[in-house]
Specification:
One of its GO terms (molecular function) is oxidoreductase activity. This is NADP-dependent oxidoreductase domain-containing protein. It holds the Pfam family Aldo_ket_red. Keywords: Membrane, Oxidoreductase, Transmembrane, Transmembrane helix. The strands form 3 sheets. The protein has an 8-stranded parallel beta sheet. Strands 1-2 form a two-stranded antiparallel sheet. A two-stranded antiparallel ribbon has the order 6-7. By secondary structure, it is of the alpha/beta class. Helix content is about 45%, strand content about 10%. It contains 17 helices and 12 strands. Helix 1 (about 5-25) packs antiparallel against helix 5 and helix 9 runs parallel beside helix 10 (about 300-310). It has helices spanning about 5-25, 25-35, 50-80, 110-135, 140-160, 185-200, 220-225, 230-245, 265-275, 300-310, 330-345, 360-365, 390-395, 435-455, 460-470, 490-495, 505-515; strands spanning about 205-210, 210-215, 220, 250-255, 280-285, 290, 295, 320-325, 350-355, 370-375, 400-405, 480.
Length: about 525
């Protein structure tokens, strides 16, 4: 529980402590606070009329006492809810695969800062009133109110003046306590958020075979390859937001979904609706994967790429094509020659990429044709390319690396707290690192990332993406472009904020990684045989 939660619950408890006696024992409370009104005047005549007035007065006092108690109890509940101690909303289920849900960009309590301010003023005013009343009446019971309200007023003031912005995000509920709403116009919070985003965003662009692209790309797999794909409306909003955030390198797959609903069919519908976006996007598509596994034979490549071109229906040119895995039955040189002679030179595609390959395969392919990119897994969980020679080879040959699953398949977003958080039917249920015996151990890295992100003032996902990108051109590394997925507009926008890490922060992350070894391979079952082909 952080200091804001403590202040919230203490405020609610203090109000409830006053409310319950007022509602349950109104006569006793009134007599304690103003005993003189309970004592009849010595000169009064105890007539039936005066008794009637006394009864009416007592009934009114009890009524207003109970009303006051009920009001205090209601205010206590509102304070607890509106400040995020109890969240008003929860995340949309199944969004973990997008790899991005953040407290900072998806606030659940827009009135928290305003309510904290009002509660602080209330406590301060109550403390002053009780203190003045004590001096006027001489009743020591009022000093209890002075002490309780005074302490809470001081804590509230400290929260507003001295607590850091990162501490205003509740670790337990994800509530963003830096924002406010009507009637406070949220102007200060909006200004602070703009300054923070400006500070964290790196306005850097890179080029891919002569075309300028943003430092972060966009993975389309989660939009179609899931048990219950999002609607076109939601997908289009996410795609629009990604493009607006500068994520114009898009990566999809022929087999990301069903033959009727996959990356290509979704893209065809999107560009039919937004034809003006076609030239803004650099599109990379994976194919060459049949029912029995990789098929990079000349016939298999032609069948796959021709189908991709057919599915996108002329709405957008496929800029880059890559076989998703290496077909060990077909020499890589044969595959490259077919793609070069029949598709690149004829203008059907602009370039060839490789996916999930080893260093030796990269060299063999590059000896036949120009390789515009190499797509491999890279995240804080998966750093194999720096040990198996892939990164060094790409750096030597000046081939950019496209980093898939840069948020560890959503693990590093901080959304997943147990294997049960993964929706049934999702492919992640099959991965070794998400199995119950490995999950808790791997969660250790996530917790460390969350701590660093909180200090940095960004989300865990943004930290993970910033780390991947910042490895670009470091040492012998080539340009590295992470391609996180996002199935909502908010998540896509969040991914577009590139966080720049200091050398000290990078060293801290390296120290954590040096002591951490993930449990479980990147893939299990038959898929493991196609790693690093």
């Amino acid at each position: 529980m952080d200091v804001f939660d403590a202040f919230t619950w203490a405020t609610g408890g203090w109000l409830a402590l006053q409310a319950v006696p007022l509602m349950a024992f109104p006569t006793v409370i009134i007599a304690m606070l103003s005993p003189e009104i309970r004592e009849p005047s010595r000169t009064s005549v105890q007539s039936s009329g005066s008794k009637g007035h006394t009864n009416v007065r007592q009934a009114l006092e009890e009524y207003f006492s109970r009303c006051l108690g009920l009001n205090l109890l209601t205010i206590a509940i509102l304070v607890i809810v509106l400040t995020g101690a109890i969240p008003l909303t929860s995340s949309v289920p199944g969004e973990a695969s997008a790899g991005v849900t953040s407290a900072a960009e998806d606030p659940k309590t827009p009135y928290a800062s305003a309510v904290t301010t009002i509660a602080t003023v209330y406590h301060a005013a109550s403390a002053v009133f009780c203190y003045v009343s004590h001096h006027t009446t001489g009743r020591w019971g009022l000093m209890m109110g002075t002490f309780g309200s005074g302490v809470l007023g001081a804590v509230g003031l400290w929260c507003l003046l001295f607590a850091s912005s990162t501490r205003r995000i509740s670790k337990r509920t994800g509530a963003d306590k830096r924002t406010s709403g009507f009637p406070f116009q949220n102007s200060a919070s909006a200004s602070a958020q703009k300054k923070a985003q400006k500070r964290l965003t790196v306005a850097a662009m890179t080029t891919l075979f002569g075309k300028e692209i943003g430092p972060i790309g966009y993975g389309l797999m989660g939009l179609t390859w899931r048990p219950q794909p999002p609607s076109d409306e939601r997908c289009f909003a996410a795609m629009k937001a990604a493009l607006a955030a500068g994520c114009n390198f898009w990566n999809g797959g022929e087999f990301y979904g069903t033959p009727e609903h996959n990356s290509l069919t979704l893209l065809a519908r999107y560009f039919a609706k937004y034809p003006e976006d076609a030239d803004k996007v650099i599109l990379s598509i994976k194919g060459g994967y049949g029912p029995s596994g990789p098929d990079s034979s000349p016939e298999g490549v032609r069948r796959s790429l021709d189908n991709c071109i057919k599915l996108i229906d002329g709405k957008k040119k496929i800029d880059i094509f890559e076989c998703s895995r290496v077909d060990k039955k077909t020499p890589i040189e044969t595959t490259m020659k077919v793609l070069e002679e029949e598709y690149v030179k004829t203008g059907k595609i602009d370039g060839i990429s490789l996916s999930e390959v080893g260093a030796a395969t990269i060299r063999r392919a590059a000896a036949v044709t120009k390789i515009v990119a190499v797509e491999v897994e890279l995240s804080l969980f998966s750093t194999d390319i720096f040990k198996n020679g892939v990164a060094e080879t790409c750096g030597e040959l000046n081939i950019p690396i496209v980093a898939y699953s840069p948020i560890g398949r959503g693990f590093l977003s901080g959304q997943l707290k147990s294997p049960d958080d993964i929706p049934d039917g999702e492919i992640r249920k099959l991965f070794p690192r998400f199995q119950p015996d490995a999950f808790e151990h791997n969660l250790e890295l996530v917790r460390n990332v969350e701590k660093i992100a909180a200090k940095k003032g960004c989300t865990p996902a943004q930290l993970a993406l910033g780390w991947v990108h910042q490895l670009s051109k470091k040492g012998k590394n080539p340009e590295i472009i992470p391609i996180p997925g996002a199935s909502t507009a908010d998540h896509a926008t969040e991914n577009g904020v590139l966080v720049s890490l200091t050398e000290e922060e990078l060293a801290g992350i390296d120290a954590i990684l040096s002591k951490f070894e993930p449990v479980g391979a990147r893939y299990g079952g038959p898929a493991a045989a196609f790693m690093e082909g």
